[in-house]
Amino acid sequence: MNVxxxxxxxxxxxxxxxxxxxxFASLLIPRVPRIAPAIFxxxxxxxxxxxxxxxxxxxxxxxxMVLPWGLPxxxxxxxxxxxxxxxxxxSGITTCAISLDLAGYRQREHYPAAARIGLQYHILLASVxxxxxxxxxxLFMIAWEAMALSSYFLVVTDHRTAAVREAGFxxxxxxxxxxxxxxxxxxxxxxxxxxxxxxxxxxxxxxxxAPGPMMAGVVFVLALIGFGAKAGLLxxxxxxxxxxxxxxxxxxxxxxxVLLKVGIYGLLRVxxxxxxxxxxxxxxxxxxVGLATALFGALLSAVQSDMKRLLAYSSVENIGLxxxxxxxxxxxxAYGLTVLAALALIAALxxxxxxxxxxxxxFLGTGSVLHATGERNLGRLxxxxxxxxxxxxxxxxxxLAIAGVPPLNGFVSEWLMLQAFLKATxxxxxxxxxxxxxxxxxxxxxxxxxxxxxxxxxxxxxxxxPREARLASATESGVWERAALGMLAVFCVAAGLLPAYIIxxxxxxxxxLTGAGGRTAVxxxxxxxxxxxxxxxxxxxxxxAALAAVxxxxxxxxxxxxxxxxxxxxxxxxxxxxxTARMQDTAEGFGQPIRHxxxxxxxxRRLRPGPDDPEPRYESVVEDRLWYVxxxxxxxxxxxxxxxxxxxRHRRIAIYLLYTLATLVILLAFAP
Amino acid sequence: xxxxxxVINLFAALxxxxxxxxxxQRRLANLINLYAWQGAILSLGIATTAYGTGNTHLYAxxxxxxxxxILVVPILLRRLVRRLDVQWDRESLVRIPxxxxxxxxxxxxxxxxxxxxxxxxxxxxHETVGIALASVxxxxxxxxxxxxxxxxxxxxxxxxxxxxxxxxxxxxGMPMVIEFGIALDVIVGVFILGVxxxxxxxxxxxxxxxxxxxxxx
Lengths: 672, 217
Known about the structure:
A: 3 domains; two-stranded antiparallel ribbon; B: mainly alpha
């Protein structure tokens, strides 16, 4: 079925070409400094092209194409269907904003870093788009590795600091473990293909391979490990809170907003379109891992005092929610409840889109704060709303959205998620039907914790009074940065106010993945749409009107009781003679109740000042317990094994060659 | 076609003979000459196989091997030797009789080990698999026993010759793509190692591995 090359695919290929050209053009910046201002805006144009192509693909039929590149006899297959289209829209809009922000970043950073970022960033964008349109394991893995390497180099942009290099190494390590798992998963599928299948590595052939339940389970677990490592699912999330703080802020936005979603995309692609019908335990596994990740991320983000670490753990939490939605969809699908599966999937995808928007917004805003103040520690910020009013407004929209406050977008997807959880009573297994709605409670807890985290984040950074004297010199960020924030804020508001349009965009994806309704359903509007409208209805205009009415009544009441206009007066200082900025609530203080309640989940290191310290400063560092329970023992085990292996080393080349000869001779001698 | 088989067997025997000669040759300049001879025998053997079986793509392989191993690589190596000024160096510490005995044992072992492979292959020259395998092992042995970096590289190149010979005798050569790849690898490898030697010598004042390994880093 070869549809002629359509416009969407052409647009994507055009954007890829543009990005590659721009990437190599950034190397010329030192020779031709005139081109420097054009680099990142051109990248933004490419991002818009892919977003447009994705939107077109969501409405149209899947388009396939075989590119005669690659090795002779091993062509690349590309395909643009609804799933690719959705993720192209997600990444296109988000990276457009990030490119705008990078245009501002380039203006204020010195040359070599900006040129390097220009090269790696555009290669990264191209490889992500290639992952979305790859239709064979070969192109997919090449693009995957290109993505891993280019993002690694972006993370270690500031490679002169040892901490940055360590974080980058951890990122690269987990990335490689994941890539290996994915490669093995594809390999198993390809080995199950019917003998003599031409081009057994194409996704079509891998789907046709249809392994038995045992092998399909193995492939599923490998895919979950591989893509979970990229997305940051427990226990492979450790790279997120390390890599995000050390990367430049626009890159953190890209990591969190787009690259985590690439993991989600891969999981959906392999589990829903390559593997045969799912077994119930797949759904339960993803659901449990997702909920655990969400709770863990929410807890740890509540107790962080570094802005970017806090946001990174918050990303872990959101990815957990998305994974929980996917697990639910798998579970519904395993029991043939395709309509409910579509609902859960719509919730998960909607949340992916939302998370891409608001988390990128928050990271970009954090970058502006970081640039203005040079400070990442919440304990040394404060009162920035007066210094950076526009950034503060954008960040306010972002924090409200991520906290799930209506009428913004975070509320819609969490609402859909809760609905999907509560619908699990329809499952034919009583245990599942009883236990899974409890997940709704857990989701609500996570959403509440997220709101708590965001109150802390926004309140400490922007409200109150500056905690340090030098914050007084902070200035508003540049035009590009504010444009990027504004664009993402508009999308957050739009996705909250117009859920019907977004769901209409996502619905083809849900149809593609769950087969809900099939062709007849598409003709009649689809049962997925019905269920969304009938049971999970959320009409933002009504809610918006009600909120506006309440607000209006409140304002009128206040006006009626206090007719005088606002007056400024000294703040009542509780009887203290002097009120300094250091008497405000701190990040540690604000997180203390959570730390107290969930103390068994956390590992806390307190730094108490000595009794005669003239400048006392209390600090508590909360560490990841998993790091000590899982990773350090593992690392020590490897160390012990390799210490033993060192006995084989003699520092003589002849001995090594002798090993080779001996191995060869032994293998030949004992060959069957 | 028995006559072709016997011609191919003759070339195979010569190939093995040259491998032994390389094992016992102490002078670097002569070693390079022997390597060129081995390349010549290899490409003649491939060409004969091509003529005998009508596999035209083997002609291209023969030409490629010939150009590379009779002309390009030896010229590069000789230039390297001149510029490093080591053409009159002799290897010490090589006990030739012992080496020969070990080599003989390896040849016998290779012939035994290759019997099942030769049985599986349906090519006219499948009896030469043992010889090819033996020359691979002999080259490895040469790499182990040599103490200068340059002669180890020549051992490595000879090993690659043996591999090509084995591929020709089992399956009439590898796919053309792979053969081109290997050819490219050999050239690039020689270039890189050439640069490397200069660095090694700058660093250690010698290409003798015994002196390099003796240093603690």
